[in-house]
Amino acid sequence: MSPSVLFATSEAYPLIKTGGLADVSGALPIALQDLGVDVRIVLPRYGDLHLRGDQTTEHIARLEVVGQPVDILRTQLPDGNVTVYLVDHPAFSARRGNPYMGPDGNPWHDNPDRFTLFCRAVVMLATGAVNDIPAFDVVHANDWQTGLVPAMLSSAENPKTIFTLHNLAYQGVFDRATFERLGLPWSLWRPDGLEFWGNMSFIKGGIVFSDRITTVSPTYAREIQTPEFGYGLDGLLRHRKDRLVGILNGIGSDWDPKHDPALVAHYDRETLPKKQENKIALQRELGLPVDPNVPLIVYVGRLVDQKGIDLLTQALGKLGARSVQFAILGSGEAHFEQSLRVLAEQDPKRIAVRIGYDEGLAHRFEGGGDAFLMPSRFEPCGLNQLYSLRYGTVPIVHGVGGLNDTVVPLNPEVLDDGMATGIVMDYLDVNAILWAVDLFSDLFADKTALEAVRSRGMSKCYDWVASARAYLDLYQNALKQ
Ligand code: ADP
Ligand code: GLC
User: What are the pLDDT digits (tens) for 58-109?
Assistant: First the structure.
């Protein structure tokens, strides 16, 4: 019998998205449901949920959570028929925009309170305390915002808990006064609990108390056990390594160049030359010189330190006489946004920058780009290199985390070696980025090798089926203990 699973997350595409967690939360439950799992998502009811016009929400319960009224609404993922419970409280629903920070770019001051409230509501749902919804067999929690759920469910009679680390750099660390204000049991204030160097850590709740810990690629699962990538939690992760496994993310069905409504020309492996039409349309849209013979290298993502944006901007300032075009779409730290804008103003024939969040444009970048650059310092999985493989857009990556697990490196000596799917930088600095740009230009000039690399990438299968099976095995395995 398949277990029933409550999937707790702070974002899920298309309802609310800031990054890859939303893509995973919007796709993995659908793949699990296809395997016969009774899976339901629970998400805060933010002020800005993208509900489709015909999408209804139904009020199903009013709870009292530490003295505060909280409503539970029910809706569905538009594409997959998966039930979504929405935890409705003004701390979420009365605010618009980004789920974690205000318009000034700073985290909401009461994030620990909001997400503790969310975790408490999740626990009530999980344990059968909400109307006639039966208790779940498994709760699958994700990232620090749901880290308290495994801590609150750690006794044996409760559902089993799985905790997925999508990014160890975001830990939800707050001071001791916050812990006291939240009214959590004092038994949790200990080094083998939530306490972290005199502060409280939400993510420790997931790492210490869950029955199984997963992260989103096998390489990242190894890396986080080292001081370099462990952010002070590597010792704890080594201690729990027999419970830790890396399962690669997959690609949702909305990322497919054959059907993508954002593209002017649809294509697959057999009709790859049609990709060029998307490139020309993108060059035109961005105001770059329309020239199919100049390689167009794109970037889409959060403009933060993790993604190596400082190195990217430095490399863009050192292009010299190179005949390439760069297109960048992102939002994030203001100083990165500003330096990218300046670069585009100074070099408008080669550099186009769009600041903001634009789902359709992100698809057009994948469809129209020749290569996709990801100079990430670390990357738990990374989704854009997977989208790039599927779109025949050659990924150029730093060989860390999921990037290491998904891109087969091009051999500079033998451009068509029958194996490569992208360009991998073994180390990361400005020169490495320029080396990779030059290597891509060489590949771009060798049309036979380019087509082989693209077509091989497109043949790789990163759909969710295999990953969903791995999660299901894990749920069943946890239930046996
Ligand atoms: P992360 O979760 O660390 O941000 P991922 O590669 O896992 O990185 O996922 C990022 C997701 O967010 C991708 O689907 C990417 O296309 C999308 N994305 C990031 N920034 C933007 C943006 N400015 N506009 C549109 N989509 C974006
Ligand atoms: C995180 C990571 C990214 C990963 C995503 C989804 O935001 O930074 O590498 O792909 O989560 O798991």
Answer: 999 999 999 999 999 999 998 778 999 999 999 999 999 899 999 888 999 9
- Judged on CB neighbours under 10 Å (0-12, 13-18, 19+), 168 is buried
Residue 167 alpha carbon to ligand 2 centre in Å: 6
Q: Tell me whether residue 309 is in a domain.
A: yes
DSSP 156-177: TTSPEEEEEES-TT---EE-HH
Do residues 461 and 477 lie in contact, with contact meaning Cβ atoms separated by under 8 Å?
no
Q: Is the CB of 405 under 6 A from ligand 1?
A: no
Domain containing residue 377: CATH number? 3.40.50.2000
How many angstroms separate the CA atoms of 160 and 270, rounded?
46
- Please tell me the residue having the least CA distance from ligand 2 atom 7: 20
């699990």: which residue's tokens? 32
Range of the domain at 152: 4-250+464-479
Q: Whose CA is nearest to atom 1 of ligand 2?
A: 166
Structure confidence by residue, pLDDT tens digits, 388-433? 999 999 999 999 999 999 999 999 999 999 999 999 999 999 999 9
Query: Based on the domain organization, do 99 and 130 belong to the same domain?
Result: yes
Is the pTM of the predicted complex or chain greater than 0.70?
yes
